[in-house]
Fold this sequence. Notes:
heterodimer, A: mainly beta, Pnp Oxidase, Chain A, Jelly Rolls, 4-stranded antiparallel beta sheet, 1 helix, B: alpha+beta, 3-stranded antiparallel beta sheet, two-stranded antiparallel sheet, 2 helices, 25% helix, elongated
Amino acid sequence: MPTFLHGKGTKVLLDEFDLSGYFNSVDMAQTIDTAETTTFSASSKSYIKGLEDGTISLAGLYSQDTDGSDEELSAILGAATTPIITVAFNAGTIGNRCVVAKAHETNYSISNPVGDVSSVTADFNASSDATANLLRSITTGVMLTAGGSIAFGSLGNLSEVDNGASSANGATALLHVTANTISGGATTIKVQHSADNVSWADLVTFSAVTASTVVAEQKVVTGTINRYVRATASTAGSSGAITYNIGFARF
Amino acid sequence: MRFRVTGGADGVSGIDVGSKRYEPGDEIDLTGKQAEWLIEQGYLEPIEGSKKFAKTVEVEPTPVVEEPVVEAGNDEASADAGSEF
Protein backbone atom coordinates (compact mmCIF):
# COMPACT_ATOMS: atom_id res chain seq x y z
CA MET A 1 0.00 0.00 0.00
CA PRO A 2 1.64 3.28 -1.03
CA THR A 3 2.09 6.02 1.51
CA PHE A 4 0.97 9.45 0.32
CA LEU A 5 1.95 12.82 1.68
CA HIS A 6 -0.09 15.88 2.38
CA GLY A 7 1.33 19.14 1.12
CA LYS A 8 0.79 20.89 4.44
CA GLY A 9 4.02 19.41 5.81
CA THR A 10 6.16 21.19 3.22
CA LYS A 11 9.01 23.39 4.40
CA VAL A 12 10.54 26.11 2.21
CA LEU A 13 14.09 27.17 3.06
CA LEU A 14 15.50 30.05 1.06
CA ASP A 15 19.08 30.89 1.98
CA GLU A 16 19.12 31.49 5.74
CA PHE A 17 15.37 31.97 6.00
CA ASP A 18 12.60 29.52 6.74
CA LEU A 19 9.80 31.05 4.69
CA SER A 20 7.35 28.18 5.15
CA GLY A 21 5.01 30.45 7.08
CA TYR A 22 4.57 32.75 4.07
CA PHE A 23 3.96 30.29 1.25
CA ASN A 24 1.04 27.98 0.50
CA SER A 25 2.08 26.46 -2.81
CA VAL A 26 5.33 25.20 -4.32
CA ASP A 27 5.75 23.79 -7.82
CA MET A 28 8.97 22.23 -8.99
CA ALA A 29 9.97 20.78 -12.33
CA GLN A 30 13.12 18.99 -13.41
CA THR A 31 13.60 18.60 -17.13
CA ILE A 32 16.15 17.29 -19.56
CA ASP A 33 16.55 18.27 -23.18
CA THR A 34 16.64 15.59 -25.82
CA ALA A 35 18.02 15.81 -29.33
CA GLU A 36 16.54 13.63 -32.02
CA THR A 37 18.82 11.09 -33.65
CA THR A 38 16.30 9.27 -35.82
CA THR A 39 17.67 8.17 -39.17
CA PHE A 40 16.35 6.56 -42.33
CA SER A 41 15.27 2.97 -41.91
CA ALA A 42 14.35 3.50 -38.24
CA SER A 43 10.93 2.25 -37.20
CA SER A 44 10.62 4.55 -34.20
CA LYS A 45 12.17 7.85 -33.17
CA SER A 46 15.35 7.90 -31.11
CA TYR A 47 16.89 10.62 -28.96
CA ILE A 48 20.02 11.35 -26.98
CA LYS A 49 20.02 13.12 -23.65
CA GLY A 50 21.01 16.78 -23.54
CA LEU A 51 21.19 19.35 -20.77
CA GLU A 52 19.26 19.22 -17.51
CA ASP A 53 17.20 22.15 -16.28
CA GLY A 54 14.68 22.93 -13.61
CA THR A 55 12.35 25.51 -12.13
CA ILE A 56 10.75 26.27 -8.80
CA SER A 57 7.65 28.43 -8.37
CA LEU A 58 6.54 29.72 -4.99
CA ALA A 59 3.19 31.25 -4.19
CA GLY A 60 1.98 32.66 -0.91
CA LEU A 61 1.13 35.68 1.14
CA TYR A 62 2.61 39.16 1.06
CA SER A 63 4.18 40.31 4.32
CA GLN A 64 6.16 43.35 5.32
CA ASP A 65 7.79 41.47 8.22
CA THR A 66 11.52 41.76 8.77
CA ASP A 67 12.91 38.66 6.99
CA GLY A 68 9.40 38.12 5.61
CA SER A 69 8.25 37.24 2.12
CA ASP A 70 8.49 40.70 0.54
CA GLU A 71 11.84 41.62 2.06
CA GLU A 72 13.54 38.41 1.07
CA LEU A 73 11.99 37.90 -2.35
CA SER A 74 12.83 41.51 -3.25
CA ALA A 75 16.39 41.23 -1.99
CA ILE A 76 17.36 38.20 -4.06
CA LEU A 77 15.99 39.44 -7.40
CA GLY A 78 19.11 40.10 -9.43
CA ALA A 79 21.38 39.54 -6.41
CA ALA A 80 25.03 38.81 -7.05
CA THR A 81 24.89 35.63 -5.01
CA THR A 82 22.66 32.93 -6.44
CA PRO A 83 20.15 31.78 -3.80
CA ILE A 84 20.05 28.21 -2.55
CA ILE A 85 16.70 26.58 -1.90
CA THR A 86 15.62 23.44 -0.10
CA VAL A 87 12.02 22.31 -0.26
CA ALA A 88 11.42 19.54 2.26
CA PHE A 89 8.45 17.21 1.96
CA ASN A 90 6.70 16.07 5.13
CA ALA A 91 9.39 18.00 6.97
CA GLY A 92 10.43 17.22 10.49
CA THR A 93 11.80 13.71 10.04
CA ILE A 94 15.40 12.90 9.18
CA GLY A 95 15.59 10.95 5.92
CA ASN A 96 12.45 12.39 4.36
CA ARG A 97 12.89 13.58 0.83
CA CYS A 98 13.51 17.08 -0.43
CA VAL A 99 14.44 19.06 -3.50
CA VAL A 100 17.63 21.09 -3.35
CA ALA A 101 18.48 23.80 -5.84
CA LYS A 102 20.77 26.65 -6.66
CA ALA A 103 18.53 28.98 -8.65
CA HIS A 104 18.17 32.54 -9.91
CA GLU A 105 14.96 34.34 -9.09
CA THR A 106 13.48 35.24 -12.47
CA ASN A 107 10.15 36.73 -11.40
CA TYR A 108 8.72 38.32 -8.27
CA SER A 109 5.10 39.46 -8.43
CA ILE A 110 2.78 41.03 -5.86
CA SER A 111 -0.99 40.94 -6.16
CA ASN A 112 -3.23 43.34 -4.19
CA PRO A 113 -6.90 42.63 -4.99
CA VAL A 114 -9.42 44.96 -3.33
CA GLY A 115 -11.40 42.10 -1.93
CA ASP A 116 -8.70 39.65 -0.91
CA VAL A 117 -5.41 39.20 0.88
CA SER A 118 -2.21 40.52 -0.71
CA SER A 119 -0.23 37.69 -2.24
CA VAL A 120 3.13 37.01 -3.85
CA THR A 121 4.57 34.67 -6.44
CA ALA A 122 8.19 34.03 -7.27
CA ASP A 123 9.80 31.93 -9.98
CA PHE A 124 13.29 30.46 -9.95
CA ASN A 125 15.43 28.96 -12.70
CA ALA A 126 18.03 26.45 -11.56
CA SER A 127 21.62 27.34 -12.44
CA SER A 128 24.90 25.65 -11.67
CA ASP A 129 26.67 29.02 -12.12
CA ALA A 130 29.66 26.98 -13.27
CA THR A 131 30.11 25.77 -9.68
CA ALA A 132 32.81 23.14 -9.73
CA ASN A 133 31.47 19.58 -9.74
CA LEU A 134 27.83 20.63 -9.28
CA LEU A 135 26.45 18.02 -11.66
CA ARG A 136 22.84 19.07 -11.11
CA SER A 137 21.67 22.51 -10.03
CA ILE A 138 18.28 21.11 -9.02
CA THR A 139 17.86 17.57 -7.79
CA THR A 140 16.12 15.44 -5.21
CA GLY A 141 17.72 14.37 -1.97
CA VAL A 142 17.04 13.73 1.69
CA MET A 143 16.92 15.85 4.80
CA LEU A 144 19.69 15.12 7.30
CA THR A 145 17.99 17.22 9.96
CA ALA A 146 14.58 17.42 11.57
CA GLY A 147 14.77 21.21 11.62
CA GLY A 148 14.14 21.76 15.31
CA SER A 149 16.00 24.06 17.67
CA ILE A 150 18.93 22.33 19.41
CA ALA A 151 20.44 23.73 22.60
CA PHE A 152 24.20 24.34 22.59
CA GLY A 153 24.78 21.51 25.05
CA SER A 154 22.78 19.00 23.07
CA LEU A 155 24.57 19.32 19.74
CA GLY A 156 26.15 16.17 18.37
CA ASN A 157 25.43 13.43 15.88
CA LEU A 158 21.96 13.24 14.39
CA SER A 159 20.40 10.01 13.16
CA GLU A 160 21.94 8.45 10.08
CA VAL A 161 20.25 8.07 6.71
CA ASP A 162 20.78 4.71 5.02
CA ASN A 163 20.95 4.93 1.23
CA GLY A 164 21.10 1.16 0.93
CA ALA A 165 24.36 1.36 -1.02
CA SER A 166 27.22 3.71 -1.68
CA SER A 167 27.23 6.01 -4.69
CA ALA A 168 30.14 7.07 -6.85
CA ASN A 169 29.44 10.49 -8.34
CA GLY A 170 29.69 12.93 -5.46
CA ALA A 171 26.96 14.94 -3.78
CA THR A 172 25.82 18.39 -2.74
CA ALA A 173 24.81 19.55 0.72
CA LEU A 174 22.83 22.70 1.44
CA LEU A 175 22.99 24.23 4.91
CA HIS A 176 20.34 26.67 6.12
CA VAL A 177 20.94 28.04 9.62
CA THR A 178 17.63 29.78 10.20
CA ALA A 179 17.98 30.69 13.88
CA ASN A 180 21.00 30.98 16.10
CA THR A 181 21.28 32.38 19.60
CA ILE A 182 24.44 30.48 20.50
CA SER A 183 26.88 32.92 22.05
CA GLY A 184 30.44 32.69 23.22
CA GLY A 185 31.82 30.77 20.26
CA ALA A 186 31.33 29.45 16.74
CA THR A 187 29.41 26.36 15.75
CA THR A 188 30.81 23.79 13.34
CA ILE A 189 28.38 21.79 11.23
CA LYS A 190 29.40 18.79 9.15
CA VAL A 191 28.08 15.95 7.06
CA GLN A 192 29.74 12.61 7.73
CA HIS A 193 29.56 9.34 5.84
CA SER A 194 30.20 5.74 6.75
CA ALA A 195 30.48 2.38 5.05
CA ASP A 196 29.54 0.40 8.16
CA ASN A 197 27.50 2.73 10.40
CA VAL A 198 30.23 2.32 13.05
CA SER A 199 33.14 4.50 11.99
CA TRP A 200 32.46 7.85 10.34
CA ALA A 201 34.55 10.26 8.30
CA ASP A 202 33.91 13.94 7.67
CA LEU A 203 32.53 14.39 4.17
CA VAL A 204 31.49 18.05 4.19
CA THR A 205 32.63 20.71 6.66
CA PHE A 206 30.67 23.92 6.34
CA SER A 207 32.23 27.27 7.21
CA ALA A 208 32.13 27.91 10.96
CA VAL A 209 28.88 29.58 11.97
CA THR A 210 29.80 32.55 14.11
CA ALA A 211 27.89 33.28 17.28
CA SER A 212 24.32 34.53 16.90
CA THR A 213 24.39 34.67 13.11
CA VAL A 214 22.25 32.94 10.52
CA VAL A 215 23.83 31.69 7.31
CA ALA A 216 23.33 29.51 4.26
CA GLU A 217 25.97 27.59 2.33
CA GLN A 218 26.18 25.00 -0.40
CA LYS A 219 29.03 22.51 -0.64
CA VAL A 220 29.81 20.03 -3.37
CA VAL A 221 31.94 16.91 -2.99
CA THR A 222 33.18 14.41 -5.54
CA GLY A 223 33.81 10.69 -5.56
CA THR A 224 32.46 7.97 -3.32
CA ILE A 225 29.63 8.73 -0.94
CA ASN A 226 29.25 5.84 1.44
CA ARG A 227 26.00 4.09 2.24
CA TYR A 228 25.28 6.00 5.47
CA VAL A 229 25.28 9.78 5.92
CA ARG A 230 24.47 11.94 8.91
CA ALA A 231 24.70 15.51 10.15
CA THR A 232 26.78 16.44 13.15
CA ALA A 233 27.46 19.70 14.94
CA SER A 234 29.60 21.00 17.77
CA THR A 235 30.07 24.41 19.27
CA ALA A 236 32.52 26.45 21.28
CA GLY A 237 29.59 28.51 22.50
CA SER A 238 28.35 28.46 26.07
CA SER A 239 24.67 29.31 25.82
CA GLY A 240 21.77 29.51 23.41
CA ALA A 241 20.40 27.25 20.70
CA ILE A 242 20.63 26.80 16.95
CA THR A 243 18.19 25.70 14.26
CA TYR A 244 19.90 24.23 11.24
CA ASN A 245 18.65 22.31 8.21
CA ILE A 246 20.66 20.26 5.74
CA GLY A 247 19.37 18.99 2.42
CA PHE A 248 21.68 16.37 0.93
CA ALA A 249 21.58 15.00 -2.60
CA ARG A 250 23.77 12.38 -4.23
CA PHE A 251 24.58 12.79 -7.92
CA MET B 1 46.97 -2.32 14.13
CA ARG B 2 47.85 1.35 14.48
CA PHE B 3 46.87 3.99 11.97
CA ARG B 4 47.24 7.73 11.51
CA VAL B 5 44.32 9.96 10.50
CA THR B 6 45.37 11.63 7.26
CA GLY B 7 42.66 14.26 6.88
CA GLY B 8 41.38 12.74 3.64
CA ALA B 9 41.40 14.53 0.30
CA ASP B 10 40.89 17.98 1.81
CA GLY B 11 43.36 17.38 4.62
CA VAL B 12 40.91 18.41 7.35
CA SER B 13 38.56 15.45 7.61
CA GLY B 14 38.55 13.78 10.99
CA ILE B 15 36.89 10.50 11.84
CA ASP B 16 34.57 9.26 14.57
CA VAL B 17 34.79 5.71 15.82
CA GLY B 18 32.10 4.89 18.33
CA SER B 19 31.87 7.95 20.53
CA LYS B 20 35.52 8.98 20.07
CA ARG B 21 36.70 11.71 17.76
CA TYR B 22 40.05 11.66 15.94
CA GLU B 23 41.44 14.68 14.12
CA PRO B 24 44.03 14.65 11.30
CA GLY B 25 47.40 13.58 12.74
CA ASP B 26 45.86 11.56 15.56
CA GLU B 27 46.74 7.89 15.92
CA ILE B 28 44.18 5.15 16.36
CA ASP B 29 44.11 1.39 16.92
CA LEU B 30 41.68 -0.48 14.71
CA THR B 31 41.31 -3.95 13.32
CA GLY B 32 42.02 -4.37 9.62
CA LYS B 33 38.35 -4.95 8.90
CA GLN B 34 37.28 -1.79 10.74
CA ALA B 35 39.91 0.25 8.98
CA GLU B 36 39.51 -1.17 5.49
CA TRP B 37 37.14 1.42 3.99
CA LEU B 38 38.84 4.28 5.78
CA ILE B 39 42.16 3.26 4.25
CA GLU B 40 40.72 2.69 0.80
CA GLN B 41 39.17 6.16 0.82
CA GLY B 42 42.30 7.84 2.15
CA TYR B 43 41.21 8.75 5.68
CA LEU B 44 43.75 6.47 7.42
CA GLU B 45 47.28 5.32 6.74
CA PRO B 46 49.15 2.54 8.53
CA ILE B 47 51.91 3.73 10.81
CA GLU B 48 55.37 2.48 9.95
CA GLY B 49 56.54 -0.22 12.32
CA SER B 50 53.08 -1.22 13.44
CA LYS B 51 51.71 -4.62 12.57
CA LYS B 52 51.34 -4.79 8.84
CA PHE B 53 47.91 -4.13 7.39
CA ALA B 54 46.86 -7.54 6.20
CA LYS B 55 44.80 -6.81 3.15
CA THR B 56 45.82 -9.16 0.39
CA VAL B 57 45.14 -8.85 -3.26
CA GLU B 58 45.14 -11.91 -5.43
CA VAL B 59 47.30 -11.26 -8.45
CA GLU B 60 46.54 -13.10 -11.64
CA PRO B 61 49.64 -14.73 -13.08
CA THR B 62 50.80 -12.97 -16.21
CA PRO B 63 50.08 -15.25 -19.15
CA VAL B 64 53.17 -16.37 -20.98
CA VAL B 65 52.94 -15.85 -24.68
CA GLU B 66 55.00 -18.28 -26.65
CA GLU B 67 56.42 -16.73 -29.77
CA PRO B 68 56.20 -18.88 -32.85
CA VAL B 69 59.52 -20.27 -33.81
CA VAL B 70 60.44 -19.19 -37.29
CA GLU B 71 63.22 -21.08 -38.91
CA ALA B 72 64.84 -18.41 -41.00
CA GLY B 73 66.84 -20.91 -42.97
CA ASN B 74 63.76 -22.74 -44.25
CA ASP B 75 62.07 -19.49 -45.38
CA GLU B 76 65.09 -18.44 -47.30
CA ALA B 77 65.35 -21.88 -48.78
CA SER B 78 61.73 -21.72 -49.94
CA ALA B 79 62.23 -18.26 -51.40
CA ASP B 80 65.33 -19.35 -53.15
CA ALA B 81 63.61 -22.45 -54.37
CA GLY B 82 60.71 -20.36 -55.70
CA SER B 83 63.00 -18.04 -57.57
CA GLU B 84 64.40 -20.87 -59.52
CA PHE B 85 61.13 -21.48 -61.32
